[in-house]
Design goal:
The protein is mainly alpha-helical. It is built from 2 helices and no strands.
Length: 46
């Protein structure tokens, strides 16, 4: 596991633009998750 994370860290150090791209993707996914959770509805009773 640590070898894999150090490989990712090395790659990101060599390609810093991917840090911003990954951050933007994580922010987008977190927003999509909140929107999907808010659209859920439940009906109680018959």
């Amino acid at each position: 596991m640590s070898q894999e994370s150090s490989r990712l860290r090395t790659y990101l150090e060599e390609n810093p633009k991917w840090i911003g791209i990954l951050f933007a993707a994580m922010m987008l996914l977190s927003q999509v998750g909140m929107v999907a959770a808010n659209n859920g509805t439940s009906t109680a009773g018959p």
